[in-house]
Amino acid sequence: MAKKTTAFVCSDCGADSPRWSGQCTACKAWNTIKEVHLGNNTPSSQYLGYSGTKSTVQLLSEVTLAQTERLATGISEFDRVLGGGIVCGSMVLIGGTPGAGKSTLLLQVIANLAAQEVSVLYVSGEESLQQIAERAIRLNLPLNKIKMLTETSVQNICNTLDEIKPRVLVIDSIQVMHTQSSESTPGSVSQVKESASYLTQYAKRNGVSVFMVGHVTKDQSLAGPMTLSHIVDTQLILASTDDARFRVLRADKNRFGSVGELGFFAMDSAGLKEVKNPSAMFLNRTEKPSPGSVVTVLWEGTRPLLVEIQALVTECQYGNPRRLAVGFDQNRLAMLLAILTRHGGIFTASDEIYANVVGGIKVTETSSDLAILISIVSSLKNTVVPHDSFFFGELGLNGEIRPVANGYARLNDAAKHGFKKAIIPKANAPKKAIAGLQIFPVSSLSEALTALSDIS
Length: 456
Description:
This protein is of the alpha/beta class. It has helices spanning about 75-80, 100-115, 130-140, 155-165, 190-205, 225-230, 280, 330-345, 370-380, 405-415, 445-455, and strands spanning about 5-10, 15, 35-40, 70, 85, 90-95, 120-125, 145-150, 170, 210-215, 235-240, 245-255, 260-270, 270-275, 295-300, 305-315, 325, 350-355, 390, 395, 400, 420-425, 440.
């Protein structure tokens, strides 16, 4: 007879423990260690591979290549983040804070697919069908083609899939699903892992595209085992901007497209609406120019994005001046200030400095270095940078301004939005002039500060 095994797992962070203890050794939380029954000690679905098929050894050149089929949802921002549409047989995990709009977005997606005569199934394990129907009516979505099911057993769900054979499946959410191979409670580490594995194998074998809604923890990371991120093909995060007016859909992992791609939506009473021109959304500036406000061009995924960077420099009233960065790395701000002191001859040791990326955007690339320093200099000297100018470039420790990727595309996009002047790295200067755009190519910080005085 197979032997039953148990494990001790932290309900907060999911860390394993060899025995029960009062405090979790990983997250230091008290009274969170729970005994979990792992079921019979027999090979479970996770050990059979996630592809769902048995494979034989063969040369890579012998592999048959087929054109990847994609389904267009009709929501261009959603398709962009996925890499051009839904790949048949793919597993997509979408997470986000409560109220971000995960269920609303997926309901809109399958409604668009159903309108294209694509067979869909929405499985709800948390909400009743009446609640979902009321939301669909509020969003003005068609009700006669969307198939619904309330179920939490993955075995029963797959049996239903065998009957109706949909092309797209939505699981809301994976944390409430359970499988009969595990005796632990739904939401536990083993249940989430086994349920995701079971659904993945079914999706790969039958070519069903699956969207799974995932919960997040207090630190905004996806709840459940880390294995969940490895199982899925695509992992999306839906977050709101600081003012809660907009939603940003980000791809943290994508086997069928670029990682870091962003999709922008506006939330209103009719659901999530696409934002076709996100640069205009983040460039809602005041009519009167003010010191410390500059514009830079970021590169998000496969497109440029114009954002405003603001800085405020004030005299320190206490012993230790504060340096606060919102929207980019705090340590990078300290490094840029050191470069400004050494190679720009501008001292800020006795000043408090606050820098912010407007709109809640998180800057992860280094192309904004020059714009951040220009905004600090503008606020420190109380000089206004013209509204029709923008800046980008990476700063080196020796004061050099390094080129950034996709420089020509950034310049073109800024010119389309009416910008007239640009201070950029010399290596990014285009060989062919861009109509209506005056470019100041610079190779060092001192040259950039001289060019700034020319355009101000």
